[in-house]
Fold these 3 entries.
Entry 1:
Amino acid sequence: MLKLKSTISALALVLGISAAPAAEFKIGSDVPLTGSLARVGEAMSEGVVVATDIFNRTNGTHTIKLTTIDNESAPAKAVAAIDKLADQGVVAFSGGYASNLIGPASEAAERLGKVYMTSGGISGELVNRGLKTFFRVNNSDGYARAMAGVIGDLGMTSAVILYSTKEATESGAKRIEETLKAQGVAVEMVPFDPAINDFKPLLHKIKVQGARDALMIIGYENDYIGVLRAAKVLKPEIKAVLGPWSLATPKMWDEFPDLMNTVFGSSTLSYPAEFRSAEEKEFADTYQRLYKKAPDYLSVFSYVQSKLLFEAVVRAHDKGSLDKGGIADELRAVDTDTLIGRVKFGAKGDNVEFTHRMGQHQNGKIVLVWPATVATGKAVFPGVPWK
């Protein structure tokens, strides 16, 4: 590819055509590398770095200079990071995790007139603030469609949704409830305080209320582990356990193998990865080279958001609109297939085509089981890790 572009550039000179000069674009990334969200923030940051590495090796003309600042899982420091990065001349931002951090950070970027791209927050409020420079590649609707898809395909007719009352998780749980009820599934909602440490009382309540097909946990990593540990003790009459983000990952199996087998979670790639495209292989190979481990679920999303952002920056530069709102204009024109499926941004900056994929832990592997078009194996059902 580099040789071909060099040949084209040489031909342009012979013909008297001016080739576009190479440019370096500064991109800023604010992510939680310390504090309560450090684990997920690290995964997000790794995906941005992988996208930068691949772009700089394959673009052939332009390059990306990435600067990352740790927001320490604190909203005020997320805003400060945006301001500091802007002072350093960044043209756009790729990063962020958790709606309470992304919200104020993206508003700071809006005031500066700079695009803020993320995949780390799914709260509906993020796209209902009237911002012109905010974009995200995923949302709660896509998670709801995926989880409801598995439940429908496996013929489940009843579910209990155990959810954290944090803004993003509560809104996600209610969206899943709406989707399930629309397809005729009986749903019970059980909220829990984000500060809870002992899930046994809630699991006891679920157990005494009788058998259900599905237990859906809408929370974060510590919540998943707490619920599954309590379920292993109390053994409620459930046929399947499902959750959204950061559940069907190699890291979760490595650290908690006794809690994960047959658990369903949203996933972008199988593990070990079964590649369906050259881009998937390039991503996984680069990730392995840089981090000596299998790709993380969140890293795939942050890779996609960054790749789309970098490409939009280049197109805006080449059209002379980089400092005239061109990056946002280029993103609004995007309609493309990616490692997370089709991406097309609506008027609010949301990916209106987002539908997640679902994987299942199966004896140390993660098998993609939904939708059928990307499945790498069949779902084990019924199946729970405590039986």
Note: The chain has 13 helices and 14 strands.
Entry 2:
Amino acid sequence: MAIEIKTWEIINGQLKQIDTTLVDNGRKEKEHLEEWIKTSPKIIGEDIFIIGEQVQTKSGFLDFLGIDKNGNTVIVELKRDKLPREVIAQSIDYASDVGSWDLNKLSEICLSYAGQDLLDSLSEQFDEFNLEEVVINNNQRLLIVGFGIDESTSRMIEWLSSNFNMSINAIILNYSKTSTNTEILSRTVIIPEEIEIQKANKKKFTIARSDIPGNYDKEKLKELVKKYLTKNLHSSRRLKEFILPFLLSVKVATRSEILKELVRQGEAEDERQAGYFMSLVSSQLGHEWKDYLRQIIEYSYPKYEWEKDNFKIRDGYIELVQEILSELKA
């Protein structure tokens, strides 16, 4: 059914209905509503951190892009008035593009909006957040926010949620201005928030991790490593162009030394950014099925059980790595 929120003010022991709107009080979606949400994103969800505003997609600009504590991206579309049924298709269209974005693109958006990279932002926002235990953008949550909703839109949302386990929800806001000019913004939701979050995490999986090296013969190993290093991934490119050449030039390289090398070669602006890049590479090295990378690269955990350090090319594989890099360069 359609949802309507009404507010009453108690004046001299009597209820007086407050019947006012954003428009009546000169409030606008872009200038006021968006600013209010930015100051307190909890109004759209307890576990959502906003990383971008007016983010361009292939289908237009989405109002807010967020990430929750489980790594799901959150597409937030705002409407100053009642939510039309078309907003559902619009949000799904945005999500179909956002779902293809990798960690580096999301980090660039976050850096531009929040002034720091995604890893640092999420670590500060959510306690015990560990990038190596979270799959970023494995699923997308859709939140449409407005000041009313008709029966057909509400019915479609409930149908998509119930029958397709889609993580979609509508947040209905109510703006009120009291007799003392106090402005109040209240909310209700179509789907209980805990159920909507549960649906988003049903598809969530944990990446299998390992420190065990592979045991391939050299021809097969060469094939697998070359295939990985030619992938269109930032981490594989950094491994090919900077990290492996550096490891060939030294016996053992600490994580700190690799960060300095990334900065020295201009790949990172500073060691903080280089540390983020190295975390992504370390995560790739720990994927269980990438045992071929661990067959040529050795590392240890001298400081923390989650932070790889003391990297080196394994004995017996230096010439193979030189040969691979030479062929790729040619």
Note: The first helix runs from residue 29 to 39.
Entry 3:
Amino acid sequence: VELYKKHSQIDLVLMDIKMPVMDGYSASMKIKEINSDALIIAQTAYALAGDKEKALAAGCKDYLTKPLRKSRFEEVIQRYFG
């Protein structure tokens, strides 16, 4: 969140959901308060039922599970950056 505040030119945030200080849901909501148009893509190794919906509700535009598959990652990036 602090990096996002300092670097307004950031085009994409790959947000880990499980982090030690603040979870990705909270961090996504804080970033969206700074810039409601921020492009945030959640990524997690803990793909439980309801996690995708929770990430989208927190402001993430998309959701990727780990391990990231190159083809899926490229597909998501292509969707937003053409």
Note: The mean pLDDT is 93.
